[in-house]
Design a protein that fits this description.
Layout: E1 6-7, E2 10-11, H1 16-34, E3 39-41, E4 44-46, H2 51-73
Antiparallel strand pairs: 1-2, 3-4
Helix pairs in contact: 1-2
Protein name: Phage protein
Organism: Nitratidesulfovibrio vulgaris (strain ATCC 29579 / DSM 644 / CCUG 34227 / NCIMB 8303 / VKM B-1760 / Hildenborough)
Region (Disordered): 72-91
């Protein structure tokens, strides 16, 4: 099993394959619950009132995936948009 990666004071315990599999499972749960069905994931049943928790779990997994990809590329990823300010030459 590959070692966890370390990024700017934060580490992730996941491999890319694990994260992709978990994201696929939680997406399936989201689709099932959104259409009114019950879904079982990791031994836990989720229903329509679980939609906020499912979305939070997907957001967490996506952030972990971004951290892992940033660590693998050697470039830390900044959350949010990048602000560019023009440089005005004086002289």
């Amino acid at each position: 099993m590959p070692a966890a990666y370390y990024v700017a004071g934060m580490s992730t315990i996941w491999t890319l394959e694990e994260l992709d599999a978990l994201i696929a499972d939680w997406k399936a749960a989201l689709l099932a619950v959104a259409s009114g069905r019950e879904y079982t994931i990791s031994g836990q049943s989720v229903r329509h009132h679980s939609l906020p928790e499912i979305r939070e779990q997907l957001a967490y997994l996506q952030r972990e995936r971004q951290l892992l990809l940033a660590a693998q590329s050697g470039r830390p990823r900044r959350p949010g948009p990048l602000t560019v300010r023009p440089v005005i030459a004086r002289g």
